[in-house]
TrEMBL record:
Pfam families: LIP. One of its GO terms (molecular function) is triacylglycerol lipase activity. It comes from freshwater metagenome. InterPro entries: AB_hydrolase_fold, Lipase_secreted. PROSITE patterns: PROKAR_LIPOPROTEIN. PANTHER family: LIPASE 5, PTHR34853. This is Unannotated protein. GO terms for biological process: lipid catabolic process.
């Protein structure tokens, strides 16, 4: 359940604004300030943030409805040309108790003052960890963090969107960056965060964002994109979602659960997934399904980013002599089984066309799991499914770049769409 791609620090890079690989980077996200440089305020909008702790949750959540913009701060991106950016706080609703919450994120837009409204691309990031310091909007500065070639491909894609005149809107998700635990892999939470970020972007006084949007994500973000597409007609009916892109999406819990718990390299993802479900459902307890050895180190979940927590839990599994951190299979417990069934995408109709791309050599989200998803949604949704040979999760965006760009461009232009599920 916690599997999500080997997020190479490109994820950190683009998890915010564009793309990130999903499950794991070998490095932690940068510090809370990272490479972000606050820019001098250029507006008298009272929502422009003037304080010193942007991510501090206000005592009372501003606004009256989910998607209301709470505050924003312009920042300077060092690695993108022709772009301007802001980190934002906006109102959403918690999946655990349906109370109002504040979610953080980032908006990147073309710097030119072209007339007319700009369509939006929502980016749903992949796994970065569940600690607030891991929030992508705290670290992205528009440049690759490593020499990994996949990062360059992701940056180029983001640059392409800006040149096309799109506004890129990237949520951090509920509880990641702002107060509260992060409901990791809880699709309803992710979908709400994505849609509410788009609603908030439309309220920015420096932008003229239209109601037209494509939603795009990788691995955990692929799950988020699919859920956002399903939720859009009821959660955000004022938005016109014209397409959904899901790259190597997390989906089939039953097929992924055992491997996530028992393989040392991905043991941390099982732990993150357990705490994520607990964060989204008051009926659940981590002690029901998590070995005491792992539970004793549960504080790591709220203090470390993926690379570090992955290494620590891998070492813990080895030193404990255990083969898994799963004490009881969650699928054998009624409340857990119900919860895990609820996070599988594709159980509701998505009105917009969907592009799903998948690497055949992906060992994190195996092609077989995505094929199962496709079989479920192909008959009721309009879907294009494309697989790439010799492609692991870290290269999915690079291999699928041409198809992804074409799909998004065509959806924005209102071009005809031909489903192709085989």
């Amino acid at each position: 359940m916690a599997i999500t791609t080997r997020w190479r620090t490109a994820a950190a890079v683009l998890s915010i604004g564009l793309v990130s690989a999903a499950c794991g980077t070998s490095k932690d996200a940068p510090s809370a300030t990272g490479g972000l440089i606050p820019a001098a305020p250029t507006t008298t909008d009272p929502r422009t943030y003037q304080g010193t702790d942007f991510y501090a949750t206000p005592r009372a959540v501003a606004g009256s409805s989910h998607g209301d913009l709470v505050s924003y701060q312009e920042i300077t991106l060092q690695g993108l040309t022709g772009a301007k950016a802001w980190r934002v706080l906006y109102r959403s609703v918690s999946v655990k108790d349906e109370k109002p919450i504040v979610v953080s994120g980032m908006i990147i837009a073309p710097a030119d003052e072209a007339r007319g409204q700009r369509p939006m691309v929502a980016w749903a990031h992949s796994t970065v960890g569940s600690a607030d310091i891991c929030a992508p909007s705290k670290s992205f500065n528009g440049k690759p963090l490593t020499n990994d070639p996949s990062e360059a491909a992701l940056i180029e894609q983001l640059q392409f969107f800006v040149r096309q005149g799109y506004v890129v809107v990237a949520t951090d998700y509920e509880g990641l960056g702002t107060e509260g635990p992060h409901p990791y892999l809880v699709g309803e939470s992710e979908g709400r965060s994505v849609l509410d970020s788009l609603l908030a972007a439309r309220q920015m006084t420096q932008l003229s964002a239209s109601d037209t949007a494509v939603i795009y994500g990788l691995s955990q973000g692929g799950q988020a994109a699919l859920f956002a597409g399903e939720l859009a007609p009821t959660w955000a009916p004022d938005l016109k979602v014209v397409g959904v892109v899901a790259a190597a999406p997390f989906s089939e819990v039953d097929l992924l659960l055992t491997s996530a718990a028992g393989v040392p390299d991905v043991a941390a993802y099982y732990v993150l997934g357990v705490y994520g479900q607990v964060a989204g459902n008051a009926k659940l307890s981590s002690s029901q399904v998590l070995d005491p050895v792992a539970s004793a180190q549960g504080s790591l979940v709220e203090s470390q980013c993926l690379g570090q927590i992955q290494g620590n839990y891998k070492a813990l599994l080895s030193s404990s002599g255990k083969s898994t951190f799963m004490s009881t299979n969650p699928l054998t417990l009624p409340d857990w089984k119900t919860q895990l069934a609820s996070i599988v995408p594709g159980q509701r109709i998505t009105g917009a066309p969907i592009l799903v791309v998948q690497g055949k050599a992906d060992t994190t989200i195996p092609a077989a799991t995505t094929q199962t998803l496709i079989k479920r949604i192909c008959g009721k949704d309009r879907v294009q499914y494309i697989e790439y040979a010799n492609t692991g999760q870290g290269d999915t965006i690079k291999s699928g770049d041409r198809d992804i760009r074409a799909f998004i461009t065509n959806r924005m232009a209102g071009a005809p769409f031909t489903p192709a599920c085989s």
